Every structure is written in structure tokens, then in C-alpha cells.
């Protein structure tokens, strides 16, 4: 069955155009009427509404003309902005730090070649990555969970390779995702129902999940309706575009692999971790990968392993693997789980579930085990390009056997605004309970202003949102909605490491250095937020490179909200003038005398070969 545009799609598109025009108070007058993505174009309704768009009273508290002296004093209006050309069409799905040709020059041992290998300075592209011909705005959630426009990721290999496993089907102008997987061909919902008989998925205590080797992320997609948000990752490998499909579906995902480098997440981050036939050698290297999962798994959290070697006695023939090999593999997994002091809660069919103890009180015997090599506690969150070690991450201290190490969390959604244990305990220097609560109020105010500027924020138009400098997660918390999710990024050069706090709120995030490319495909985010980012990276790396990376990962007609000092934003605005973005400077919601300003941008719609030459 091929899905086609209908009148509802067109009317929705018209409404989107109207909101942009009115919400940005005439700035998007032309843009709103003539946007070309999605499943309709600007029609007579939109054109009629733009005639009346001069009425800007909808945002009376915002002054769109900035009055800070810095704007006049720092801009040379006579200097023409640098114009960035489109990259060659072969770069349409370019992932700079996971480039296939570069990857093949690295060793294959322990998946080193699938790890991040970023281009040297002289290898960087200084052009705009184009969208493929026929690119359209993805379907709104939840329709996007099940359908992806073929033109956005035109790769059919998985429809053949995974045909009997119900991963993905090609139907005319769309891909359909029935919700199946290698271990759950009958669908992710039924599979999650099985897990829920052991794991308390429905009571709010399981909120953050990690899916290792996620495929097209159907497990994460179907957890969403149960108010669980999964961070899914898989390498860019022979299963072409699996993470790209996940993001086109509106499911949180990054390109990643368990290799030799620690995962880019803090300790005690996830309530549940999952591997469904993910092909990770869990027992190898002294159980190093299980120990890394243990590092990021919250005390009391669950680890799910389905597929080989579980139930090897009945499946070794189907898996075409020797019994002895599978038996030894499961034996190693059981030994490492025992060393980690995980309690096995369930094994039935091909599913096994372990639970991490809430503290170290039941595991004191490990102290005398010669195999129990403990990591340094202070290095638990030091992960960026740091080698993974086959050591055990120690639990935080507790005062009694019933206490949850690191602090007990509230169920979600109460967890979102409850004081996180890391804040309550004073574990983050400079962040008190009062600081945290004040930050929440500030971001409620900021997001309220954003929604007046851009009425699309609450409309469902923006599903995948990126916060490039998340701090305490206040932006994501204020936006919380079943219509969207936010990837909270903790810059590795930030003064305070607060990513653990973000996870304790029931949000997800990742460590990253914005001097390098992000671990995602082009065109994967609908809205990007950058608060204080360019002040943070001033003199650290080229701001032009950061902006070109933002352009790479932003969808055509996606939006960006910058919040920074006016002098910084003027420099940003000048660079974006050559990037096919439309921008407008807006005063701080407290008035024109506040030096912090807001710069709003929209990326224009254009595709391969659109009226320009390309950079080879």
C-alpha cells in the first residue's frame, strides 16, 4: 500500500506555514507561503493568511528589533558574507566521524574500525550537505513510527535481508515498519509484554533504557507508548541506514558501537539495558562489555539479553553454531553476571533478565575475589575517548542495606521536577537545590517565550529536538510532551558535568565535543537549541565548522534557536547568511537592555542539484 498526500496533510502544512509567518511576526512572510517539504505545498489558504500576517500583536512582549550597541559597533555591513556551496551529491548521507572509506583503514579487532574516526582539519568539508531528490518532511508522530518516506532514506537492502523478521517493508513511496525484529518477528509490543511480566515497565520506575545494537529501533519505538524513552545505538555497518531509519521514524538513536572506547553516557544513567540478538560478544575480554553496561546501569536496574546464547540447547542447529561454543559463551556470561553481583530474575525461551543490586551490601565477597578489579570511582564519568577497562565500577556508599546507592528516584513523570539525588547530595559542585529549582523556573520562562516566537514548537511539527548545551536539562523538561523528545548534549569542555543529573530527571543525553561531528546522519533533527554554546566554544575551535555541522544534521525547513550574548550572535548571524538560512534577531524576553539575545533561524528547503554547483 502506497501512502499518498491527502487534504489533511495539505491543511496541516498550511497551518504550519501560518504559524511560522505569524509567530515570527512578518519575518517568515515569504518563507511561510512557499515552503516546499512535507506532503503538500503552500496553497490558497496559506497565501490568504499571509496577507494578514502584518498583525504582530500575537507576541506583544517581544521586540524584534534589537537595541544593543554591540550590533552597530561590531558589524561591517560592507563586507559580503562568505557563501557556502553544496557538497557533491555523493555526500548526501555523509557521517564525518563514521565515514566508511576511512573506517576501513582501521583494525577490525574489537570493532575499532566502527568507532569514531573523525577527519583531520585538512580533510573537513566546508560545504552544505544536500538533501536527496524528493526529500520530504517526515510524517508526524505516531504515524512516523510505522511509515518513512522512501525518498528520505532510499535503501531497500533491509527489506530483503530482514524480510521474514518483519523489520521493514517497501510499499510504493514509503517504507513500512511492522514493529518486528530478529527476536520478535511477531512484533515489539508482544515482546515488551513478555518483559513487563518481570520488569515493572508500567509504574514509572523504568523510564530510561539503553538498546545496544538496536537495528531500526522498533523496541524503543514501541516503548514510547509506555512512557519509557530508549537511547538506541548501532554502528554504521552492513545493515545500511538502520540508525537513519530509526531517526526518520522519530526514535532517539545515535551511531555507536561497543568496541574499545567507553560509551558516551554517565554512570548510573539507565533503568534498563537491552540486547536483542545484538551480536555483542558479552563474555569476551573478561566480560568488559557487560562491565561497561554495569557502569551505566542504575542500581536496581535490569539487563535483558534475548537471542544467542540463551536457550542454546534448543537452538544451536537453527543458529548454525556448535553446542560447545554456545555453552561456553553462556557460561562466561553467567560468571561475569555473578561477579557483577547481578541477580538472575528470569530465563524462559530465548529471553534472560538480570537485575543489578541496589547497593554493594550483598556483594561484599567481591572484595576478596582476585578477579574483581575495581575501577577508580572518580573516573566513572570520564568517558570521552577513554579506553574501556575490564574493571568493576564501585557503587556509591550507603548507610544501610536497604538504601539505594546513589539515591532512590521518583517514578516518572514526578521524577522530571523532583530534586535529583546528585543535586540533593551535593555531588555536583556549584549546583545546589536552590540553583536547580531556579534553573527550572528560568527555563519555563524561556520556553514560554520560544513558543510565542515559534508556534510550531507545540504543534507536533518538531519531533526530534537537539539541545547542544543542556546544562541541567531545564529546556527539555519545560518542553516535555509525548509529541517530541530531546537529545541533551553535555559538551565535554563544560565547566560542570551535569549529564548524570539530566538522566536522573528521566531525560536522555550524551557527551560530545562540538569541535567534532555528531554521531548521527544528516537531516535527523527538526529543531536545534544552542544556549551559550558559541560563547563556550569561543577560541576552542572554528565557529564556522560548528554551524556547518548544525546544517548537516538539521532537516530542510528545520529551525534553530540560539540564545547567547549579542556580540556572539552577530558573528553567528553573519556566517549563516551564506548557509541558505533565514534568520532574525530577537530581544531577550525581559527587554532590549539585556545583553543576551535570541537568534531564530530556519533552514531553507533545497535538494541535490538545486540551482547551484557543488563542491567536489
UniProtKB/TrEMBL annotation:
Keywords: Glycoprotein, Golgi apparatus, Membrane, Methyltransferase, Signal-anchor, Transferase, Transmembrane, Transmembrane helix. The keyword 4Fe-4S does not apply. The chain crosses the membrane at residues 15-34. Its EC number is 2.1.1.-. GO terms for molecular function: methyltransferase activity. It is found in: Endomembrane system; Golgi apparatus membrane; Membrane. The keyword Protein transport does not apply. InterPro entries: Put_SAM_MeTrfase, SAM-dependent_MTases_sf. Gene3D superfamilies: Vaccinia Virus protein VP39. GO terms for biological process: methylation. It is a single-pass type II membrane protein; Single-pass membrane protein. One of its GO terms (cellular component) is trans-Golgi network. PANTHER family: METHYLTRANSFERASE PMT2-RELATED, SAM-DEPENDENT METHYLTRANSFERASE. Belongs to the methyltransferase superfamily. This is Methyltransferase. It comes from Gossypium australe.
Amino acid at each position: 500500500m502506497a501512502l499518498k498526500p491527502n487534504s489533511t496533510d495539505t491543511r496541516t502544512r498550511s497551518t504550519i506555514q501560518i504559524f511560522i509567518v505569524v509567530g515570527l511576526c512578518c519575518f517568515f512572510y515569504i518563507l511561510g507561503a512557499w515552503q516546499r517539504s512535507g506532503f503538500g505545498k503552500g496553497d490558497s489558504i496559506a497565501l490568504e493568511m499571509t496577507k494578514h500576517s502584518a498583525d504582530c500583536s500575537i507576541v506583544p512582549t517581544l521586540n524584534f528589533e534589537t537595541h544593543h550597541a554591540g550590533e552597530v559597533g561590531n558589524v561591517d555591513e560592507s563586507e559580503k558574507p562568505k557563501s557556502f556551496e553544496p557538497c557533491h551529491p555523493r555526500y548526501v548521507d555523509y557521517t564525518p566521524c563514521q565515514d566508511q572509506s576511512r573506517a576501513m583503514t582501521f583494525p577490525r579487532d574489537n570493532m575499532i574500525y566502527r568507532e569514531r574516526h573523525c577527519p583531520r582539519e585538512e580533510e573537513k568539508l566546508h560545504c552544505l550537505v544536500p538533501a536527496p531528490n524528493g526529500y520530504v518532511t517526515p510524517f508526524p508522530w505516531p504515524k512516523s513510527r510505522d511509515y518513512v518516506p522512501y525518498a528520505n532514506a532510499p535503501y531497500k537492502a533491509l527489506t530483503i535481508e530482514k524480510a521474514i523478521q518483519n523489520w521493514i517493508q517497501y510499499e510504493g513511496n514509503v517504507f513500512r515498519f511492522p514493529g518486528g525484529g530478529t527476536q520478535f518477528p511477531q512484533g515489539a509490543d508482544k515482546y515488551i509484554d513478555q518483559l513487563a511480566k518481570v520488569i515493572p515497565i508500567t509504574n514509572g520506575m523504568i523510564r530510561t533504557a539503553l538498546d545496544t545494537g538496536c537495528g531500526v529501533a522498533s523496541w524503543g519505538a514501541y516503548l514510547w507508548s509506555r512512557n519509557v524513552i530508549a537511547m538506541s545505538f548501532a554502528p554504521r555497518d552492513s545493515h545500511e541506514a538502520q540508525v537513519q531509519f530509526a531517526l526518520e521514524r522519530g526514535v532517539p538513536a545515535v551511531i555507536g558501537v561497543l568496541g574499545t572506547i567507553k560509551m558516551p553516557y554517565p554512570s548510573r544513567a539507565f533503568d534498563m539495558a537491552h540486547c536483542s540478538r545484538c551480536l555483542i560478544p558479552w563474555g569476551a575480554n573478561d566480560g568488559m562489555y557487560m562491565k561497561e553496561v554495569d557502569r551505566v546501569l542504575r542500581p536496581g536496574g535490569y539487563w535483558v539479553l534475548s537471542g544467542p546464547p540463551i536457550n542454546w540447547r534448543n537452538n544451536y542447529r537453527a543458529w548454525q553454531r556448535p553446542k560447545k561454543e554456545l555453552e561456553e559463551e553462556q557460561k562466561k556470561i553467567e560468571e561475569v553476571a555473578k561477579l557483577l553481583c547481578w541477580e538472575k530474575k528470569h530465563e524462559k525461551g530465548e529471553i534472560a533478565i538480570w537485575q543489578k543490586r541496589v547497593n554493594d551490601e550483598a556483594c561484599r565477597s567481591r572484595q576478596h575475589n582476585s578477579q574483581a578489579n575495581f575501577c577508580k570511582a572518580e573516573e566513572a564519568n570520564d568517558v570521552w575517548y577513554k579506553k574501556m577497562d575490564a574493571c568493576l565500577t564501585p557503587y556509591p556508599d550507603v548507610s544501610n542495606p536497604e538504601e539505594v546507592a546513589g539515591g532512590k528516584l521518583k517514578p516518572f513523570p514526578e521524577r522530571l521536577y523532583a530534586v535529583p539525588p546528585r543535586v540533593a547530595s551535593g555531588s555536583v559542585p556549584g549546583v545546589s537545590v536552590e540553583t536547580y529549582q531556579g534553573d527550572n523556573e528560568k527555563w519555563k520562562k524561556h520556553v514560554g517565550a520560544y513558543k510565542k516566537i515559534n508556534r510550531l514548537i507545540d504543534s507536533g511539527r518538531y519531533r526530534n529536538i537537539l539541545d547542544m548545551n543542556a546544562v541541567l536539562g531545564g529546556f527539555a523538561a519545560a518542553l516535555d510532551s509525548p509529541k517530541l523528545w530531546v537529545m541533551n548534549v553535555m559538551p565535554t569542555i563544560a565547566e560542570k558535568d551535569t549529564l548524570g543529573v539530566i538522566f536522573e530527571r528521566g531525560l536522555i543525553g550524551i557527551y560530545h565535543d562540538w569541535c567534532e561531528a555528531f554521531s548521527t546522519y544528516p537531516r535527523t533533527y527538526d529543531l536545534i537549541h544552542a544556549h551559550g554554546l558559541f560563547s563556550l566554544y569561543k577560541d576552542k575551535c572554528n565557529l564556522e565548522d560548528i554551524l556547518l555541522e548544525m546544517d548537516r544534521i538539521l532537516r530542510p525547513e528545520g529551525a534553530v534557536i540560539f540564545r547567547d550574548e549579542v556580540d556572539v550572535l552577530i558573528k553567528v548571524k553573519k556566517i549563516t547568511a551564506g548557509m541558505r538560512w533565514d534568520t532574525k534577531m530577537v530581544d531577550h524576553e525581559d527587554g532590549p537592555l539585556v545583553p543576551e539575545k535570541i537568534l531564530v533561524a530556519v533552514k531553507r528547503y533545497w535538494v541535490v542539484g538545486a540551482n547551484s554547483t557543488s563542491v567536489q
